[in-house]
Design brief:
Largest sheet: 7 strands, antiparallel
CATH superfamily: Hotdog Thioesterase
Number of helices: 2
Helix content: 10-25%
Order of helices and strands: EHEEHEEEE
CATH topology: Thiol Ester Dehydrase, Chain A
Number of strands: 7
Distance between the termini: 30 Å
Radius of gyration: 14 Å
Number of domains: 1
Shape: globular
Strand content: 35-45%
Strand order of the largest sheet: 1-2-3-5-6-7-4
CATH class: Alpha Beta
C-alpha cells in the first residue's frame, strides 16, 4: 500500500470515521486507486437506518479525488480546498454497499483541469462488479 489511513487523513479534511478510505494502492499524474472496507463498519457515519446506500459511493469517490489533488500539488505549494460543484452521468448498479463482502476499490481519473476547477470520472467496484460510476466537477478555492 502506498498510503495508509493516517496518511490519508493528512491529505483531506476528513478524519476518524468520516475518513472513508483505508489506503491508496496506485496513483499517477491523472489517476488514483484507493481501497476500503469502511462500508462494512456499523459506525460508518454515512449509514442511515443501519444501511449504506450505494449513492454514498459519491463521497468515497470525492475523497479519492481530494487525495489525488493533495498528491499532485506542486512541491511547496499548499493544496487548494475543493468543493463538489456538479455530478454527471452517475449510475448506481445496486442499492446498497454495506452488504458487500468484498473490499471496495475506488478509482478516479482527472479528465481536465486548471487553477479553478477539475473534472474527474470515477468508479467504485467490489470484486469484478462495478457498483457506481459517474463524473464530477470540483471547484477549487483559489483564494485558499
Amino acid at each position: 500500500m502506498l498510503m495508509n489511513k493516517s496518511e490519508i487523513e493528512g491529505k483531506i479534511p476528513h478524519a476518524g470515521a468520516m475518513c472513508l478510505l483505508d489506503g491508496v494502492v496506485a496513483w499517477d499524474a491523472t489517476k488514483i486507486r484507493c481501497v476500503t472496507r469502511t462500508h462494512q463498519n456499523e459506525n460508518n457515519p454515512m449509514r442511515a437506518n443501519g444501511q449504506l446506500s450505494a449513492v454514498c459511493g459519491v463521497e468515497y469517490a470525492a475523497q479519492a479525488m481530494a487525495i489525488h489533488g493533495g498528491l499532485t500539488v506542486v512541491a511547496g505549494k499548499r493544496p487548494q480546498a475543493g468543493y463538489l460543484a456538479s455530478l454527471r452521468d452517475v449510475v448506481c448498479h445496486r442499492g446498497r454497499l454495506d452488504d458487500l463482502e468484498h473490499e471496495l476499490v475506488v478509482e478516479a481519473e482527472q479528465l481536465m483541469g486548471d487553477e479553478t476547477r477539475v473534472i474527474y470520472q470515477f468508479a467504485l467496484r467490489a470484486g469484478e462488479a462495478e457498483l457506481l460510476s459517474g463524473r464530477a466537477t470540483v471547484v477549487l478555492d483559489a483564494g485558499g
